[in-house]
Amino acid sequence: MKLKDKVCIVTGAASGIGNAIAHRYASEGGKVAIADLNLEASRKAADDIKARYGTEAMAVAMDVTSEEQVNAGVRAVVDAWGTVDVLVSNAGIQIVNPVEQFAFSDWKKMLAIHLDGAFLTSKACLPHMYAQGSGSIIFMGSVHSKEASPLKSAYVTAKHGLLGLSRVIAKEGGRKGVRTNVICPGFVRTPLVDKQIPEQAKELDISEAEVVSRVMLGQTVDAEFTTVEDIAEVALFFAAFETNALTGQSLVASHGWFME
Length: 260
Ligand code: NAD
Description:
There is one protein chain. By secondary structure, the protein is α/β, with parallel strands linked by helices. The chain has two domains: 7-186 and 227-253, Rossmann fold (3-Layer(aba) Sandwich), CATH 3.40.50; 189-225, no CATH class. The protein is 49% helix and 15% strand. It has eight helices and seven strands; from the N terminus they run βαβαβαβαβαβαααβ. It binds nicotinamide-adenine-dinucleotide. Nicotinamide-adenine-dinucleotide binds at residues 11-12, 14-18, 36-38, 62-65, 90-93, 113, 140, 142, 185, 187-188, 190-193.
């Protein structure tokens, strides 16, 4: 059991990648808080986890862009389980549009969810991690933390920004036992990606099949999607890694789409 009794908060865990991470952590003995905008889906996810692994799980209503809700959510977890050992800042959305048509309100919303969310959840968890002298913070980046694509100005900007925040917390937290990492997935078939397929087809004037075969998988080595299980395995690796040796690092998991 690599995370026995570790208290893990995963944002955006009512769906997709975050949900798979919550399951993987629970399967290794972690107590998992599903922190999501969608409380009903979070409750269902927490119930599924409790039933499946016999571990503790809780749902936390949290809009990661709200300092008040983030602080209240982290407080609820600490009140229930005493501390926070692992934070996975994963909640995210996607909005695609060319820059000249990108609504400023959409730009601000994207930066708020991806960057404010990462900052606020880290800020709320760090005092608990520092007090106990250990902790792991994992940010959900993307291949778009390192590579650009058309139509994704806000997403690419925000995902690049997470690398900077992770490195700063790695430097501030190193002597206090706190490690940070960024996971950079390629395309993973979740609701976030399914929503983009017709949108990109329209914007790029190509078929939906071409969006999948060319835009999403065209540069992979095997024309395969990365899976939520692949990403959950990487998230387990970072959360359970015991030393500072890998702190501040990011790892791309993309079937060879992006290599460094
Ligand atoms: P998803 O749509 O399946 O899940 C996202 C979850 O985040 C949902 O449960 C949603 O309710 C929640 N959420 C949205 N806004 C929120 C907010 N303000 N506060 C709290 N929760 C909120 O998406 P996913 O594909 O699992 O994406 C998860 C993360 O992985 C995102 O950060 C995304 O950018 C990143 N990512 C996804 C892919 C991919 O191909 N799917 C690739 C690289 C990175």
